[in-house]
Specification:
alpha/beta, Quinone Oxidoreductase, Chain A, domain 1, Rossmann fold, 12 helices, globular
Length: 343
């Protein structure tokens, strides 16, 4: 089968053997649609120490089950499924508490430590946990982002404990940030504030009615603007989905005292909390690795029309052209949100 392999600091489309069942809770899925994640770029650039050279990349996909291990009882061959980006057993200490990113028997494996989904077929460990049936009124395109980008956006809302009538600021209007905005609308905040240095992405957030206010911090005094919108207090909740030094510092500066700040971005270097300057704000920082345990709920929300992420697909490429897809995804940040790989 065709598969995108990362090795020697480069990616190449190669022929690989078809995956096989090696554990009774495995499933083999025929990939119907996959996507490229910024995390894949981090692997290629060497920012993910756990990544194993020679793996097939990719962890964000939907497809059809073609083979099942003997212990899988909740799925059937032929089921259309959305895949969780994380492998989790459902039985260990962390899984039982909902912290599946820290599963003692899994974690981020697909496309990192074991072969991922940017191939014609993929083996999914603990498939009874990590695969969710797609409702009949949802297309593969509708469900593509449920197990990763949408889960991460929802996770940000969950981490910052968004309440009705809160003012939430979301830093980064890329795919995760836009998903956080889409999820936030279901919690009835008083206002959703989108912050990004990319005006095209801010425009999209506004056009899609995902944000009530949009700001480019390079063109305004962002702390002043946030205080003007929040009776001089600052935002009640912050989701930091941009992932750079400026956005990290901005997160605590625009927060009101006693606010919750959700850090869902992946950074390429260490960040510093200036604790003396922050003293007295009594902020709560929560970080992720997404605990994507809400796939069924998110699919139900999509089915009912409460969330739609179709707008994220900027371009589609066939698997044969996945190298071009990577180039487009990495180098067209003004025009690209997500690319979909077709099979």
């Amino acid at each position: 089968m065709k598969a995108l392999v990362w090795e020697n600091n480069k990616i190449e489309l190669k022929q690989r053997d078809y995956p096989r069942i090696i554990h009774p809770r495995d499933a083999i899925v025929k990939v119907k649609l996959s996507s490229i994640c910024t995390s894949d770029l981090h692997i290629i650039k060497g920012f993910v120490p756990n990544a194993k050279p020679g793996i097939v990349l990719g962890h964000e996909f939907v497809g059809e089950i073609v083979e099942l291990g003997s212990n899988i009882k909740n799925l059937q061959i032929g089921d259309r499924v959305s895949a969780n980006c994380e492998t989790f057993c459902g039985e260990c200490y962390f899984c039982k508490k909902g912290y599946i990113n820290n599963c003692e028997n899994g974690g981020w494996e697909l496309g990192c430590t074991i072969d991922g989904c940017q191939a014609e077929f993929v083996r999914v460990p603990y498939a009874d946990m990590g695969l969710t049936k797609i409702p009949s009124n949802i297309s593969y395109e509708n469900a593509l982002f449920v197990g990763d980008i949408l889960a991460s956006g929802y996770f940000g809302i969950e981490l910052c404990n968004l309440q009705k009538d809160d003012a939430i600021a979301i830093i980064g209007a890329g795919p995760v940030g836009l998903c956080s905005m889409a999820c936030a609308k279901n919690f009835s905040p008083s206002k959703i504030i989108a912050i990004d240095i990319n005006d095209a992405r801010l425009k999209k957030a506004k056009e899609l009615n995902l944000a009530d206010y949009t700001f480019n911090p390079r063109k305004c005094d962002i702390e002043k603007e946030i205080k003007n919108l929040t009776p001089n207090r600052g935002a009640d909740c912050i989701v930091e989905a941009a992932g750079n030094e400026d956005s990290f510092q901005m997160a605590w500066k625009i927060a009101r005292a006693n606010a919750n700040i959700a850090i869902v971005a992946m950074y390429e270097k260490d960040q510093i909390l200036p604790l003396p300057k922050m003293y007295g704000k009594n902020l709560v920082f929560k970080t992720g690795g997404v605990d994507g345990i809400h796939s069924k709920e998110l699919l139900d929300m999509i089915s009912k029309g409460a969330i739609n992420t179709d707008f994220l697909i900027t371009q589609k490429y066939p698997l044969d052209n996945i190298i071009k897809a990577y180039d487009f995804f990495e180098n067209n940040k003004n025009d690209c949100l997500k690319v979909a790989i077709t099979y």
